Amino acid sequence: MHGLTEQQLIVMLLSLGLIIGLARLLGDIAQRFHQPAVLGELLAGVVLGPTVFGSLSPEWQVYLFPAEGENAVVLQGIGTLAIVLFLLVAGMEVDLSTVWKQGRSAIKVGVLGILI
Predict the structure, then answer these.
(1) Measured between alpha carbons, how far is 2 from 18 in angstroms, rounded to an integer?
(2) Disulfide check for 23: which of 41, 57, 106, 115 has CB 3.0–4.6 Å away?
(3) Number of domains within the chain
(4) What is residue 50's three-state secondary structure?
(5) Which residue segment(s) compose the domain that 26 sits in?
(6) Is 60 inside any structural domain?
(7) CA angle 46, 52, 65 (to 5 degrees)
(8) Span 96-112, pLDDT tens digits
(9) Distance between CA atoms of residues 96 and 16, nearest Å
(10) What tens digit of pLDDT does each residue of 28-59 get?
(11) Which of 6-10, 22-26, 34-38, 67-71 shows the highest mean pLDDT?
(12) Residue 1 included in any domain
């Protein structure tokens, strides 16, 4: 990789802004309906993905969220980092006393989850 051109950088920043902005907006809307913000954030991913945005405007969806190329590599890297941080926060919010109370069933589910 030789780095991003000006146009690629602008497209990447626009893509990230769109992702963060819509995720925040739909997360806030979900909270107003007494739902977790993550529900709205996940819905933002569906809206910006090929299911909705890709159906309405496939050219723009491919332009903003390419499947290959340097922008795709950057977006995939940021996405991977976001998933790791999300799982870290989710793990920090787990009440271990509840896990210990569940005992064997929690261990079985955890081990199966790791194996799969």
Answers:
(1) 25
(2) 41
(3) 1
(4) coil
(5) 6-115
(6) yes
(7) 70
(8) 787 778 777 878 888 89
(9) 34
(10) 999 999 998 889 999 999 999 999 999 999 99
(11) 22-26
(12) no
